[in-house]
Design a protein that fits this description.
This protein is mainly beta and 168 residues long. It is built from 3 helices and 12 strands. It is elongated, with a radius of gyration of 18 Å.
């Protein structure tokens, strides 16, 4: 079974086992809602059941049924939280999971020339930005907007892009 990262536990919060999570998903309200089942990346058989989740600054505070005190929560620091692929809902057309885009070959929409590979995605504000790593190892960031991303072909793991002057 495949698992996908949704967040990383970075610290504890309070004395009742609540943890601070760095979000790695576009759907934190869904992933950290009561009843949601998450797993540890290195122990996918261990299930954690969310009992509460809420945004807190740029993080989420999450409480799990299985973690009841500060000592237990401290042991989770640094753990990556994942969700089973079977628990991911289908997305509407034109919306993609990060794991679908990461690793895609980036090609020039006009010439078909290979520009690089999508190696990272950040969500700093109004739209995501994709890190494109060129064959020479240099990186640049490309906003995920219609003017720059012309076509996404998941079947062939390829994205057609138009690089605006000054971005690369």
């Amino acid at each position: 079974m495949d698992f996908y990262e949704v967040g990383q536990i970075i610290n504890t919060h309070g004395i009742n086992g609540e943890v601070k999570v760095k979000v790695i998903t576009d759907f934190p309200a869904d992933r950290f809602q009561p009843g949601q089942q998450l797993h540890f990346q290195n122990q996918p058989d261990q299930v954690l059941t969310v009992t509460a989740g809420r945004p807190f600054k740029q993080f989420w505070l999450v409480k799990f049924a299985e973690i009841t005190d500060l000592d237990a929560a401290k042991k989770l620091q640094g753990q990556m939280l994942t969700i089973a692929a079977s628990d991911q809902p289908d997305l509407p057309a034109g919306v993609y999971y990060y794991h679908d885009i990461l690793g895609c070959q980036a090609v020039d929409a006009d010439s078909g020339e290979i520009i690089g590979e999508v190696t990272d995605i950040e969500a700093p504000g109004a739209n995501d930005i994709w890190q494109i790593t060129k064959p020479n190892g240099k990186n640049f960031w490309l906003p995920y907007i219609p003017a720059c991303v012309k076509k996404v072909d998941l079947e062939h793991k390829q994205v057609q892009i138009k690089v605006m002057e000054g971005l690369d």
